[in-house]
Amino acid sequence: MKKVFKSFVFAILLISPTTIHAQTTFTVDTAKPVADIQSTMYGIFYEDINFAADGGLYAEMIKNRSFEFTLPRTGWLEPNTTRTLLNPDSGIMNVIKSGQGANNNFARITVENSDNYKLINEGFRAMGIKKGETYNLTFEARQINGDINKVTATFIDPENDENYGSTTLDIAGGNWDEYSTTINPTQTVMKAQFQLTFEGTGTVDMDMISLFPENTWKDRPKGMRRDLVQLLADMEPGFLRFPGGCIVEGRNLDRRYQWKKTVGPIEEREVLINRWNTEFAHRLTPDYYQSFGLGFFEYFQVSEDIGAEPVPILSAGIACQFNTGEVVPMDELGPYIQDALDLIEFANGDTSTDWGNLRAEMGHPAPFNMKYIGIGNEQWGEVYIERYTAFQEAIKEKYPDIIIVSSVGPFPSGNSFDYAMKELKAMDAELIDEHYYRSPEWFLENADRYDSYDRNGPKIFAGEFAAHNVQTTSPDNANNWYTALTEAAFMTGLERNAEVVHMASYAPLFAHSEGWQWTPNLIWFNNLESFGTPNYYVQKLYSTNRGDKVLSLTVDDEPVIGQNQLYASASLDNENDELILKIANTSSDAQQIIVDLEGSLSVGDVKVITIKSDLEAENSFQEPTKIQPVESSFQADGEKLNLSMDANSFSVIRVTTVAL
Ligand code: AHR
Predict the structure, then answer these.
(1) 175: which residues sit within 8 A by CB, 6+ positions away?
(2) Tally of CB atoms within 10 A around 14
């Protein structure tokens, strides 16, 4: 910081001219940074829950494109051949099970009357299509008998068969061939479906019937939804944790997430039932599967795109302990450990290695420079510690620089938490993953959670958190301003303790408005639109105003952890010589705050970014930015700032400072 002559100008910054009910003095020492704030401090937790992958981020529009769901007709409709409207003379789709490889099944379509027969895919709660955009259709097909030589693909309205654009292409030959064409919708429609009709009669086989918007993130063919990735990129996240969450563990071991089955050619990735499919009786989603078109390569790639450190989490050989709790015997743990070692090779290995070579074949010869790997999600008890120990030994022996994330289970306190913490500390665990889905009040009461953590112990990854205003996992939990404000208040405690807390992420990330199982979530979307919740804007404000060093910020020599219902932290942005204050006023009254900039002066413009709202208010598709940060600036020169904080507000204040 620059040295200037001492000045005693008293700056009055009125954030807004509201009634002021109290006055509190904060003291900030800009000259003595307390600790570094890691570049990974604020990041993203991604899990395929709530249709986050298929039907969400992964832009595939056809549900069950390869007929591999347990009920292989799922997603496919034949309007003229249903039980209630049986017309066997029109035609039928059977599913042939070949019993070989990952993609066993294909459709055998016999058309008796081409005027009558239609095969419809309903999409993921239908399909959103946009006029002016192009949709790329691909499929594999072969003729078996008869003279079917044309296939027409049409976007339709399922209610009245209205045609929203179609295309016809020729098919020929008795061998499997790949076909591709495009469809340009004539209208923008939220709930279209996709229909195939046939010219001629006879039998054809079809497989991997796939439809994507051309307009994807980075224009990648068969890629991700641009709007959803953009929302993530806008957060400037320090890391991306994937693929979860409980999905890592599986309800049983057979259904755990196996990264090796999610890389290589898309048609060879084995479809798996999604563990959230029937988890909650109140939100049954029997048509929820994982195609793995969005697999580990794609997660690494998107991490790189958005500048986030990739943080993959792998099975520890323990299925979800809330479900079956199946545990692999210690003497059969070898393949699980090998999966972790091979993943490091896949991400970082030279192209001369087997897995590094696969990464190169998939289009990324350069290493992804993965630095972290997580072993287990919400595991607890001796079974975990025993298995984690074996993983840690093997990984550290081969890759000593990789930082391993370990678990203390699903709860932030209690016997299982204490046991795991003690054991993990004893084995010098580096980064411990804590989860808390708790009431908003818990978040306020725990703003000092990390103040007493050992500075020399393991570092903390606050890997999953969210304020649940009704009850943990209740379907009625809301993404309202109250929950977001309490999270903002709590996070001042994460930032103050950046010496201990190295990573933090809200969870879950995404939810489809009709396909969700869990509330609350950071981002909601339907088949055309998406919006960030107030919680999203809080996370984004933290991430985009992180700072590099924590500063001491006190009231009466104590950290600001709820005195006068205020919560605050301070950091320093070294590059710009800026002091960054984060202040949550959880009082229903406006409050006056004097910030004593001990040892420095503020100069020039002060930027203030504030979110405020009624506590019950939420964003929605109709009002996607009803609650969002609003920016203003003030001129100020002096040793003290006088701020007025609105009722129920969260503000980030950026001040250019110079040392006295
Ligand atoms: O975020 C939803 C779920 O909550 C995660 O899968 C799990 O880790 C936690 O219990």
Answers:
(1) 142
(2) 14
Atom of ligand 1 nearest to the CA of 45: 1
In the reported structure, the alpha carbon of residue 246 is separated from the centroid of ligand 1 by a whole-number distance in angstroms of 5
Q: List the catalytic residue out of 60, 378, 487, 639.
A: 378
What residue type is 35 in one-letter code? A
To the nearest 10°, the Cα dihedral for 165, 167, 168, 170?
-160
Q: Closest Cα to atom 1, ligand 1: which residue?
A: 508
For ligand 1, atom 4: residue with the closest CA: 245
Distance from the alpha carbon of residue 436 to the mean position of ligand 1, in angstroms: 10
β 566-573/578-585 pair status: antiparallel
Ligand 1 centre to CA of 374 (Å) is 15
| Strand ranges for 560-639 from DSSP E | 566-573, 578-585, 590-596, 600-612, 630-635
Q: State pLDDT tens for residues 462-490.
A: 999 999 999 999 999 999 999 999 999 99
User: How many Å apart are CA 543 and CA 42, to the nearest integer?
Assistant: 5
Q: Which residue's CA is minimally distant from atom 2 of ligand 1? A: 508
Pocket test for ligand 1, best of 49, 50, 321 (most atoms within 8 A of CB): 49
pLDDT of 164 reads 98
Closest CA to 472 of 319, 322, 273: 322
pLDDT at 143: 98
Residue 60 falls in the annotated catalytic set: no
pLDDT of residue 74: 97
User: Which residue among 256, 276, 405, 437 has the greatest number of ligand 1 atoms within 8 angstroms of its CB, and so is best to mutate?
Assistant: 437
CB 547 within 8 A of CB 581: no
Number of H helices, E strands in the chain: 9, 36
Cα 445 to middle of ligand 1, angstroms: 22
Pocket of ligand 1 (CB under 6 A): 47, 49, 244-246, 377-378, 410, 464, 507-508, 518
pLDDT tens digits, one per residue of 392-435: 999 999 999 999 999 999 999 999 999 999 999 999 999 999 99
What is the number of the ligand 1 atom nearest to the C-alpha of 508? 1
Closest ligand 1 atom to residue 507 Cα is 1
Peptide bond into 508 cis (omega under 30): yes
- Give just the sign of the alpha carbon dihedral 235, 236, 237, 240: positive
134-186: pLDDT as tens digits = 999 999 999 999 999 999 999 999 888 899 999 999 999 999 999 999 999 99
Q: How far apart are CA 380 and CA 485, in angstroms?
A: 31
Indicate which residue's Cα is closest to atom 6 of ligand 1.
245
Q: Output the 3-class SS for 428-486.
A: CCCEEEEEEEECHHHHHHCCCHHHHCCCCCCEEEEEEEEECCCCCCCCCCCCCHHHHHH
CA distance 375 to 341: 12
Q: Pick out the chain residues at pLDDT < 70.
A: 1-22, 81-88
Distance CA 427, CA 260 (A): 29
